[in-house]
DUF2007 domain-containing protein (Pseudomonas eucalypticola), 86 residues
Amino acid sequence: MQRIYDPESLLEAEMLIGMLDSEGVAAHLVGRDLVGGIGDLPAIGLLGLTVANDQADYARQLIAAYNAALPLPGEEPESFQGVLVC
């Protein structure tokens, strides 16, 4: 197993796990149980996504593409130009 990405939040981690799963990559979240200790533990580096060694490069490519995604032109609400609303 290789640690391939450090998500900023539990929500981001769950979204990435779902995206990776839809592409056939089994991911495991390390540190999920430590999130409740924020305040007593350092807030950075608690969470990490791990995948099998043979899928690590592909998973990194998928996450990079996901993070680089932009909204389609014309899909942005007029009141929030430049902001992606999910």
